[in-house]
Every structure is written in C-alpha cells, then in structure tokens.
C-alpha cells in the first residue's frame, strides 16, 4: 500500500532542451499585411459595401493567423502571448482610426474658409446662406466664458481637494466626496437650467457670458476636485513630514511643499477640465443666447461661443454655412489642443527635477 | 544650545492600539543616545513623540510628559510647530524636497519660517552644509536639484536641512538603513561631530552602529506581537554591550533572541 505512490513516474518541469522554434522578427508585420490584403480580397470577392466590414475582417484574420502560425511553429504558451499582443494592437488601431478620421475630416473640410479674415470678423451683416463672415465673436465669447468659468471653478476645486486630502476626516469629508461624485454626473443641460432658474428667472438678470460661465463652472468643478485630489494623494507623506519636522506650519507646508510638488499634475487636470467645458453647447444656448455681433463684455448682453456657432451654422443648411461650421470646428479643436500643449509645457517645466 | 530631555510615564496610541507603554528615561544634553530593539517595538514611535510628530499620524495620541529642560512638550498651551523648530528630525529614507535646489532645500526651514534675512541665508546654508560634511561635494552645484545627489549625499543634505534651523535636539530615525557602508561611515563621523552642539537621539537596527556612535543605549522590547512596546533598560553603551542588567537585552545583543 505505502509503496504505490513512489512507483508513479514523476513528470519533470524542466524542458528537455532550452531552444525552441521561433517566428522571425518580421512575422507580426507580415501577418498584418497579409491579413489586410486578405480582408480587402474577401471584401471585394463577397461584394461587401462597407469598408468597416473589410477592416473588421482583417482584424479578426490577423488574430487568427497569428495564433495558428505561432502554435504551429512555436509552442502554445508563445501562441497565447502573441494572441494577447495582437489583440492589444487591434484594439489600439480600433481606437486610433476614429480619431484620425475625425481629425482628417475636420481639417480637410475646415481649411476651406479658414483664414485671417475668418478669424478676425464676426457674422455682422452676413446672411446665413451666403459666403463671408467669420468666427471672431464666437472665439472671443468662448475664451471669455471659459476663462471666467476657470477663474470660478479652479480655486474652489483646488481648495476642496486640499481640504479632502490634507484636512478632511469623518462625515463632512465623506459627504463632500459623495456630492462631488454626484456633481460629476450632472448633465450640462441641467446645470444650464439651474443657473437659468436662479440667476435669470429668480434674480432677473438677462443672458450674458457670465451666466454661461457659472453653468460651465458647475460642470468643471468636480473634474478639478477629482484630478487635484488624485495628484495630492501622490505626493509622498515623507515630504509633508520632512517639512513639518522643520517646524513649518501645516498651511505653509501645503502651500510651499505639497502644492509645488503636485503642480504639474494639477495644471494638467485643470486643463483637461477646461477642454471638457470648452465644447459645451447646451448651457451656452440657454444662458448666453448666441449673437451674430461682437460683444466684448461677458457680463452684459448675449454673446456667442464656438460650439454654439457651429450648431447655428450647420442648422442654416447651405454649402457656405457648412464650410463655416467645419472651419469653426477646426478652430475649436485647435483651441483645445493649444490649451493642452500649454498645460503639458507647464507640467514639464514645473515637474520635480531629477537632473544632476 | 543643547537641552536635556526628561520623559516620564509616556504612552503612545494609534487609535485604540497602544504602541508604547509607560516609558520613562532621561536623555543627557550633548550626548548620543541610541535606541535598539526588534521591529515593531515602538522605537520610532517613541522618537516621534519627542518632537510631537506622532500626532501627525491619523489617530496618533500621547499620554504622559516629555520635559525639555523644564518645559513640558505636551503642556496645555504648547505650540507643536515651536516644538518641532526646537527638536529637529532626520528620517529613515532621504527625503529632499523634489521641487527645490540643493540651496533651497537647506534654506527651506529658515525660508518657510521666515526667520532669516535674505543676506544671511547664504552664510547659514554654507555653514549647515559644512556641518553636514557635504559642502565640498556640492558647492559648485548649489542650484541643481537635490534629488540628483546620491543616497548618502541626500541623507547628509537632509541633516544639513535639519541643523540649518539650529535645533536644540536632533532626532534620527534609522538614518543609515538605506545607505551603503561608506555613506554610513560618513554619517557616523558626522554624528560624532554634531554631538558637540546638539543632543542626539538615534534609532538603529545596527547594533555595531549603536556601539560605535552612542554614549548611552536604550533597549526596547515587546512581549508579543500586538502588545505595546516597553523600555527594558537604558544604560551606558559600554555596559549594555558588555554586561547588561537584564537577560533579555543580552539575548538580543548576542543574537539569541526569541
């Protein structure tokens, strides 16, 4: 009885040899080209109309061929590894294609009327379905509204995050976190309606850029709080302790040590929030009302903004207004992208230095 | 300059957990006192109660008295910020401020407290870096970031930063545990020089280090995991390492622990 176990042969985990068959270095690229060609071929042969179907076919073929080739030439573990890698590539391409297509469409259609005249003139005296006119009033409106919204939301959001990370304990902090989460989910139209009822209907103010900024600030605040909170949590506790142990008061520690260490991430977070609200249309429509004329004063009278301008122009429905809408969309994308680049610049410039 | 520390009946808590129990000891001015003992016995916690850093930890709470000369650190109207200016601290891992240059790191304590004129700042920084034996290595790159230095240099930078505010007492929490033997030697030499000016308390896991640098040694132990740490004995370092009065100390020092 007791000797039975010993009789069983033990399978060793050590392989007999350390070498194995391998696909050449160019195999993934080759398989990708092959499956793309096959995808197009099958698409043509089966007379599939949509190019999306061709692409999906190619993607599926890519994964399948990779697995087959690898399990024939190499072993199963290697095949699984290659399948995982090829899936990641497929997902990457699936994610990037819409982005590139969007940028391509906007740039190719937007460049038609985009010039210095377009950027420096308003729609004053231009009939909607005729050529001419420009985007200056909308660009100005967007800049002013977004700036005001940032001036309101960034300090409040920053201070809230500092409270939550550095001071907040117990039920108040939990409640604040909960309501910030709730605020993240507020639809922009609801924020617009809230300001409309309080500021415009109850207090009796007319439409203005500032009213729009307040609605945008409501949308921006939770994003700033969340991102700043995460950045502050990343600051090592040792730095706070080092500063406190030098006899630096807590508020100075936060101001001079914690915030400077996290400033790069905070700037990026604020800029992402700015990018989010720059494209908002609904609250602008309700509160800023839209205008064809230049209005420098965000505190009085209707203004325009880029998203609203795009919507208006597209609604007119003539070829010239379509051109203006696409050009304005390009301006909007460029505006957000420049803001992002600025934020990255700040982040790099302010980031903790590691050089010798 | 240096002050005497007189601890009586000190217990420290994390929430409801008692970390150290009823510790009393006297730490002489201008001397080096080493704390040794197994991990989790409360050496670092006790050290942090000496400059009120323990209460920075959420749930941290202290009972008992710590007299600095004749002033109770835990008295009614004592400002913890003032305590920390008097009792400086060096941590286990070097932690220079990453956004600041070498110069700014050393000047940080003074600048953030606003206690020194700009014109004097350069002198104080030079004196502190010389005091930490780092001046010759960094004098040509004071404007470079402190995080570019080696680990041992960073730790000496942190010591320079701590002594720049001219504290009375310097607490060191395993200052050499992240360093190589040569950097450790540099710091140990430095401790020997610093004790002329400061009262130094050092926590260490390295018993040879305790024997080399300290005048007096305190041995901490805990009865079991989860139990509070206790002070077993404190005596002249020579006696602790040659002829301790408690058996547990001898067991720990000779490696027959547990």
Show the helix and strand layout.
The complex is a heterodimer of chains A (356) and B (258).
Chain A: H1 4-7, H2 27-45, H3 51-73, H4 76-110, H5 116-120, H6 136-167, H7 170-184, H8 188-202, H9 209-234, H10 237-245, H11 250-278, H12 282-287, H13 306-316, H14 319-350
Helix pairs in contact in A: 2-3, 3-4, 4-14, 6-9, 6-11, 6-13, 7-9, 8-9, 9-11, 10-11, 11-14, 13-14
Chain B: E1 5-14, E2 17-27, E3 32-36, H1 43-49, E4 60-68, E5 71-72, H2 80-86, E6 87-90, H3 102-113, H4 118-131, H5 135-138, H6 151-164, E7 169-173, H7 181-194, E8 199-203, H8 207-213, E9 216-222, E10 229-236, H9 237-242, H10 247-253
Parallel strand pairs in B: 3-8, 3-9, 6-7, 7-8
Antiparallel strand pairs in B: 1-2, 1-4, 4-5, 9-10
Helix pairs in contact in B: 3-4, 3-6, 4-6, 6-7
Your description of this structure?
Chain B: Keywords: ATP-binding, Nucleotide-binding, Transferase, Translocase, Transport. The complex is a heterodimer of chains A (356) and B (258). Chain A is built from 14 helices and no strands. Chain A is mainly α. Chain B is α/β, with parallel strands linked by helices and 258 residues long. Chain B has one domain: 3-Layer(aba) Sandwich (Rossmann fold), CATH 3.40.50. Chain B is built from 10 helices and 10 strands. Chain B has helices spanning 43-49, 80-86, 102-113, 118-131, 135-138, 151-164, 181-194, 207-213, 237-242, 247-253; strands at residues 5-14, 17-27, 32-36, 60-68, 71-72, 87-90, 169-173, 199-203, 216-222, 229-236. In chain B, strand 9 and strand 10 form a beta hairpin. Chain B is globular, with a radius of gyration of 18 Å. The mean pLDDT of chain B is 89.
